[in-house]
Amino acid sequence: RQSLSDREAETKELEELRLFKARAEMSSEARQVEIDAAERRNADMKTSLSLSEKDAAENAKRAQQYFEELTIARKTVAAFTKENDDLKELLGARESIIRGMEKELALANEKLSSIHTLRGVGAGNRSRSASAAKK
User: Which of 13, 22, 38, 88 is 20 to 30 A from 5 via CA?
Assistant: First the structure.
């Protein structure tokens, strides 16, 4: 009897060991699945990070190009502004010259008008003198 109960106890222990081993193997397999999934996520994250770093580098390069273009545009605007200011100054000088010439022309016209008036008066006097002499 004792050997029967010993055998039953051993059988029960073996059954418990088998169940424990089966649970351990399942846990091991489940852990391996989790590890594999974590490794895949890690690889995906590395790929994503690599792409993000590449995008960041490209964005930095583009930003530098935009900055250089902006600098050139600012220099161009400054040059055009200076040229515009120079042209305004030149135009002001020419307008001043034209105003001076207009004043000179007005004075010349006044003198010419005075000369014509004097000649007209002189011619009128001469014709009156000639008429008086004939009489």
Answer: 22
User: Distance (Å, rounded) from C-alpha 108 to C-alpha 114?
Assistant: 10
Which of 1-35 are b and which e, b meaning 16 or more Cβ less than 10 Å from the residue's Cβ? Answer: eeeeeeeeeeeeeeeeeeeeeeeeeeeeeeeeeee
pTM for the full predicted model:
0.45
How is 43-85 classified by DSSP, letter by letter? HHHHHHHHHHHHHHHHHHHHHHHHHHHHHHHHHHHHHHHHHHH
Q: How many other β-carbons are positioned within 10 Å of the β-carbon of residue 55?
A: 10
Q: Residue for token digits 């029960």?
A: 12
Q: What is the pLDDT of residues 67-97, one digit of tens each?
A: 999 999 999 999 999 999 999 999 999 999 9
Q: What is the dihedral of CA 89, 92, 94, 100, to 10 degrees?
A: -140
Q: In this structure, what DSSP letter does residue 135 have? A: -
Rg for the chain, CA atoms, rounded: 57
Query: Which of helix, strand or coil describes residue 1?
Result: coil
